[in-house]
Amino acid sequence: MGIVIAILLFSTIVIFHELGHFTLAKWNGIRVDEFSLGLGPTLFGKEIGGTKFSLKLLPFGGACMMGEDDVDNVGEGSFQSKSVWARISVIVAGPLFNLLLGWILCTIMVAWVGYHAPVIGAVDDGYSAMEQGIQEGDLITAIDGERVHLWNEISWKNMLNREGKEMEITYRREGEEKTVVLEPRALAGDTGKRLGIVSSGEMTRPGILGSMLYGAYTMKFWIADYTFTSLKMLVSGQVGIQDLSGPVGIVDAVDTTYQDSKSAGVRSVILSLMNFGILLTANLGIMNLLPIPALDGGRLVFLLLEAVRGKRISPEKEGMVHFAGFALLMVLMVVVMFNDIVKLL
């Protein structure tokens, strides 16, 4: 069952990505030859409005075929016949639709169960927080000058502070904001350094407009605090290729999430899978915006250069760059898939 759910979840995220390309292509009068879910041979296809909608054999990936690689096709309705800004909007729409999907899921979750407010429920003895006068009921509003809106942001920033550096904490009490500097400490029994503050566990349900706002804050946490931090750790060498997961690893992770949460009931399963879906769609959106050849971000770089220069980059040169990028991505995918299989054995 977990494998089926993983395929459905991944397929939904891919469809939303390709729907972004499809929607902006149609909006700009670009002909879309095929909109497909999956890869490989076609299992089923039907033409509607000049576009063939297809279901492929392999349930991973998808495509919105609009002739963006056919540089010689400049006829009416072709991708190449449109202005550079129209083409940019089509390319960037896929990743942005992924981020939009993440925000929608976050908003639904906040409206359903609320958000974890950054309210202090207890202050432990022997830690810097008590020494600096922080009390139960204080609302943390910023860490090191950066605004926070969720308790998850506090936990994440403290977890990343492996060196135990001092942290500037701004909190609000009875309408007045105060700022103190806390020193993380590890006392007897601690597995890591702590600030000495405990969440109240308070979940706030803010209504429709508030859910949309805190859905955005939650999405910002996944992108800024999680996805970007993970990318930084990958680039800096703190994590390696062996830590990456491909389709096999994702399916296994979704299945594990399902198995771990099903004993708690349907509600727990849905919330757990929604959280996993937010992580996946946020990562897919951001990764596709990176300036890597063959990805949307790589195509975007050439289109932005065209906009600045006022003329196109040589199609042959662009094609070679994207081909090389695609080949490297395929090699990376094989390596990641091999690592996933080894982990499962």
Runs in which pLDDT lies below 50 for 5 or more consecutive residues are none
* Whole-number total of structural domains: 2
Number of strand segments: 10
The run of helices and strands is HEEHEEHEEHEEEEHHHHH
Morphology? elongated
Count of DSSP H/I helices: 9
Structural class: alpha+beta
Give, in spatial order, the strands making up the sheet with the most strands: 6-5-7-8
How large, in whole angstroms, is the Cα Rg? 24 Å
> How much is the average pLDDT?
87
Strand content bin: 15-25%
Largest sheet: 4 strands, antiparallel
Helix content: 40-55%
Distance between the termini: 20 Å
Helix/strand layout:
Elements: H1 2-27, E1 34-48, E2 51-65, H2 84-113, E3 115-116, E4 120-123, H3 128-131, E5 139-143, E6 146-147, H4 151-160, E7 167-173, E8 176-182, E9 197-199, E10 203-204, H5 207-236, H6 247-261, H7 266-289, H8 296-309, H9 315-344
Antiparallel strand pairs: 1-2, 3-10, 4-9, 5-6, 5-7, 7-8
Helix pairs in contact: 1-2, 1-6, 1-7, 2-5, 2-7, 2-8, 5-7, 6-7, 6-9
Can you summarize this structure?
This protein is an alpha+beta fold and 345 residues long.
Explain how this protein is built.
There is one protein chain. The chain has about 350 residues and is an alpha+beta fold. It is built from nine helices and ten strands. It has helices at about 1-25, 85-115, 130, 150-160, 205-235, 245-260, 265-290, 295-310, 315-345; strands at about 35-50, 50-65, 115, 120-125, 140-145, 145, 165-175, 175-180, 195-200, 205. The strands form four sheets. It has a four-stranded antiparallel sheet with strand order 6-5-7-8, with no helix packed on it. It has a two-stranded antiparallel sheet with strand order 1-2. Helix 6 crosses helix 9 (about 315-345). The longest helix has 30 residues, at about 85-115. The relative contact order is 0.13. The mean pLDDT is about 85.
